[in-house]
Specification:
The structure is a single chain. This protein folds into two domains: about 260 residues, 3-Layer(aba) Sandwich (QueA-like); about 80 residues, Thrombin, subunit H, CATH 2.40.10. The two termini are about 25 Å apart. The strands form three sheets. A nine-stranded mixed sheet has the order 2-1-17-16-14-3-12-13-15. By secondary structure, the protein is α/β, with parallel strands linked by helices. The chain is built from seven helices and 17 strands. The N terminus is likely disordered. The longest helix has 13 residues.
Length: about 350
């Protein structure tokens, strides 16, 4: 038994009868953290690896992402998140001149944002100086968070124009070097607003999309602007803005009538579709803010298959995966990923759960 597998199996332990299951935990070796985009490793976007697991019988297959269409069937529907990543990391300074990294998470209204001042103990009313004469004033902590703040930003320019001039993509310490914003975009991104890339869709190329279309696999879009999800914390997701357009609701309904699968590309798509469920269980056109947290107790009703990245130990995304595939399936899948040296994080490999 490998060390990663042993760590995975020893991390949990059965909960007491009637108790909530502990967060899914395991040891992630640093060697399995993708430190750079696949293009820097000599691969195409669609050259990353694809782990395929089947809930019905526990079958496991190892493939390249370019093979994705052959694991789907004619009439299946891929639902993607077309939110585009914004350059949401800003170099700020405190009043005493100390530098601080400020990550913008979510745009609210009237100049208000949810922000994350990295690695400092901030206080209400503190003002941070930003490039270009801009400022961020921290107002109150974001409810339920120990790291996020609601802030008023005076950017001296339209927000997207300002960020394009002064911001850069959010990157965490496991990423080696700095990479341009294009490396943090999916090929179908078109609506700017995500602080962090909806990364399950990063491996898609126009060739893979064309291959899926030739196989008779449909494509529909939602928009959900993803906020920051710092890997050092295991907090639940914050409220995020989403839109499920009428044409997507119709496409989901049509796939269901034909008995075909709705395949969510990423946990953001699951959150959006589950937020747009009518009492009847149908996905309907909807838009607004969602605070939905998908848990095993709630379950998943809107999707039949899920394409997702590999998530950090104890991450809230793992609870959503458990809502879709039970703990035993998830443990087996992550055991296969660890033993097979799959790569984690936004530039890593991906997992298709059927």
């Amino acid at each position: 038994m490998s060390a990663p597998t042993a760590a995975l199996l020893e991390a949990g332990g059965a909960p007491a009868r009637g108790a909530a299951a502990p967060a899914f935990d395991f040891a992630l070796p640093p060697a399995l953290e993708a430190q750079e985009p696949p293009e820097a490793r000599g691969l195409r976007r669609d050259g990353v690896r694809l782990l395929v697991t089947r809930r019905r019988d526990g079958a496991v297959a190892h493939a390249a992402f370019a093979d994705l269409p052959r694991y789907l069937a004619p009439g299946d529907l891929l639902v993607v998140n077309d939110s585009a990543t914004i350059p949401a990391a800003l170099a700020a300074r405190r009043a005493n001149g100390d530098p601080v990294a400020l990550h913008l998470s979510t745009r609210l209204a009237a100049g208000l944002w949810v922000v994350e001042p990295r690695a400092i103990r901030a206080g209400s009313g503190e003002t941070l100086d930003l490039p270009g004469g801009a400022q961020a004033r921290l107002l109150v902590p974001y409810p339920g968070s120990t790291r996020l703040w609601i802030a008023r930003l005076d950017l001296r320019a339209p927000w997207l124009e300002y960020l394009r001039s002064h911001g850069r993509p959010i990157a965490y310490p496991y990423v080696r070097g700095r990479w341009p914003l294009e490396m943090y975009q999916t090929v179908y991104a078109r609506n700017p607003g995500s602080a962090e890339m909806p990364s399950a869709g990063r491996p898609f190329t126009h060739e893979v999309l064309a291959g899926a279309a030739q196989r008779g696999i449909g494509l529909a879009r939602i928009t959900l602007h993803a906020g920051v999800a710092s890997p050092e914390r295991d907090e639940p997701p914050i409220e995020e803005w989403y839109s499920v357009p009428p044409e997507t609701a119709r496409a989901v309904a049509a796939a269901r009538r034909r008995g075909r699968r709705v395949v969510a590309v990423g946990t953001t798509v699951v959150r959006a579709l589950e937020s747009a469920l009518a009492p009847s269980g149908e996905v309907i056109a909807a838009a607004g803010w969602t605070d939905l947290v998908v848990t095993p107790a709630r379950g998943v009703r809107a999707v039949d298959a899920l394409l997702t990245g590999f998530h950090e130990p104890r991450a809230s995304h793992l609870a959503m995966l458990e809502a879709f595939a039970d703990r035993a399936h998830l443990e087996a899948a992550y055991r296969a990923a660890l033993d097979g040296a799959y790569l984690w994080h936004e530039f890593g490999d991906v997992h298709l759960i059927l």
